[in-house]
Amino acid sequence: MLLNKRLLLVLDQQDDISLALERCHLIASRLQSAVTIVWLGDDQVKAEQAMAELMTDGVAVDLRYSTRHKLLKQLAGLLSQQSFGLLIKSCDPRESGFMTSMDGHILRDLPCPVLLVKGDQLWQDGVVMAAVNALTHDPHQLQLNDDVLMVAAQIAVVTESALTTAVACPSAMMGADPVLQSENLIQAKAQEALAAQLSRLALTVQASAVGEGPVEYWIPEAAKQLKARLVVIGTRARGGLKGALIGNTAERILSRLDCDILVLRVGLSDEVVPLIK
To answer: In its keyword annotation, does this UniProt entry include Cytoplasm (predicted)?
Structure first.
């Protein structure tokens, strides 16, 4: 059971650590989950202050030190040695240009759900948005849709938030199916597919934002329209040359979102849902 699993919190002393620390504190204190802090830097005073803040509610905490250069290898080692239910980290504000960002490497390389904290609003009484690919026929992507919807729904219940969904549709010019050479037809088909999936999972949403455009543009726009405080999205964690050239959907969305983002891989809702129930 994930109730007994640890949280992995990455804090960089060069950044504002308050948001990620606050999210971790709320989750850990609610679940009484132990926390492992990986501190980037050598400021022991600040690191121990962060550790003490988490321990105020009786949360068990241990502290490790690392550098940006060694972080990925150290995180991979920790994940291979212990069971962590969630990795929590502030979204990296640094521009990476053509290089993959640290957050991008974490999303591609680490087998763990990742919460990247970006917004300053708490999730309680807010809006949780699940971003899914409703028009897919790929069985792995369909499972990922289920995972995203189930996790978003559970978080919405726990935080007394509104559950919403968003779907980015391809433009009519890009549609391979001749039946879908109309923007209205494409979006209607996406709405129909989304409704069927929600019905199968016995979920009810307050609103759905279905629109045309690349995922990395439409999902952030939908999050703004719906005033989402958390976006839940899946990733297939594309690696290798293809990943280096075009990245993953979750990576491309990061810089355009103003709220927190929870990124899942296929099958990981089996782990995250027990954590948040």
So the answer is: yes
